[in-house]
Write a structure and sequence with these properties.
The structure holds 2 protein chains of 2 kinds.
Chain A (H helix, E strand, L loop, with lengths): L2 H4 L7 H12 L3 E2 H8 L3 H13 L3 E8 L2 E8 L1 H19 L1
Antiparallel strand pairs in A: 1-3, 2-3
Chain B lengths: L1 H19 L6 H24 L10 H32 L7 H26 L6 H16 L7 H16 L5 H23 L2
Classes of the chains: A alpha+beta, B mainly alpha.
């Protein structure tokens, strides 16, 4: 695997990397909690999560709890695999 | 380039840890709960001395109920101090207090505690008072062990010590108060100090 193909461009942003890390170890995380963990703005989180959803790395669930809308995130199998590969790549680079 | 990779890895690790473990347990919480325990034990000892100590191997009923009330008040005050310092630390670190990790931790803690409480109620009902101290220590230790994977501060060692102490105390009936003072008082204070210095 060459350097270029191993490095997943989708995970270049810190926000996306953070989101994926959180979702690797938590089954489902809601919007507010994710925002607090990553310390980003609403708009920033929304645009990065939309990009990850477009790649089918995460699932975004929107539902109503009472009258309040609630958005939550979950990692997909594709996302898990992509993140794992990215992680392997980073580790391999570190060993060189 | 290598620096960027190692930064990324560090970021991944820290996000995984921050999101899955309850990091802001304060050492002061342990110290606060422990000191409360020692003060509670002092009052309990006063009650026992006032009642004239053990007759025929048992305390009289009035004494037992007074002791239960002291124990409950001690528990409530200890819980108050325990959560107060931890909430304060979370706020200082800019972390949310009520997260899904907190909920998971609470659930893991409460299962053994509830079972232990029911067990103790049965012991009280059938007047096996002598076994209560050991039982509470054992179930409390089990609760800590159970919550260990969500908490970031070696509470499993505290849990193991509580269980060990509880098991020993089962064979020293009549010394319950002494074991309680060690388990809920001194162990918490020592643990709190260690935690405070380590993760300050």
């Amino acid at each position: 695997m060459s350097i270029i193909s191993g490095l997943n461009k989708e995970f270049e942003s810190r926000v996306r990397l953070g989101m994926m890390s959180v979702l690797m170890v938590n089954e489902r995380v809601d919007f507010t909690e994710m925002k607090n963990l990553l310390q980003v703005t609403d708009g920033n989180l929304a645009s990065h999560s939309a990009a990850l959803e477009k790649n089918q790395y995460i699932e975004i669930k929107k539902e109503f709890v009472g009258k309040k809308p609630r958005t939550s995130y979950k990692i997909t199998e594709i996302g898990k695999r992509a993140f794992q590969e990215h992680l392997n790549f980073l580790e391999k680079m570190m060993r060189q | 380039m290598n620096e960027k990779f190692s930064d990324d890895l560090a970021h991944i690790r820290s996000m995984m840890e921050r999101s899955s473990r309850f990091v802001s347990l304060s050492g002061l919480s342990g110290i606060g709960a422990g000191v409360t325990g020692v003060i509670g034990a002092f009052f309990a000892n006063q009650i026992i001395e006032k009642s004239g100590g053990i007759t025929n191997g048992y305390y009289n009923h009035q004494t037992v109920y007074e002791l239960i009330i002291v124990a409950l008040i001690t528990l409530i005050v200890a819980l108050f101090f325990g959560s107060f310092f931890t909430i304060r630390k979370s706020k200082k670190l800019g972390l949310a207090v009520w997260t899904s990790t907190t909920k998971k931790t609470m659930i893991q803690l409460s299962i053994p505690l509830l079972v232990g409480a029911i067990f103790c109620l049965a012991l009280i009902k059938y007047e096996f008072f002598g076994l209560i101290a050991g039982t509470t220590l054992i179930f409390y230790g089990l609760a800590l062990l159970n919550a260990e994977k969500y908490v970031f501060s070696d509470i499993k060692y505290l849990g193991m010590l509580e269980i060990l102490l509880g098991c020993i105390s089962l064979f020293w009936i009549g010394q319950g108060l002494l074991f309680w003072t060690i388990g809920f008082g001194f162990l918490h204070i020592v643990y709190g100090i260690i935690l405070y210095r380590k993760y300050k």
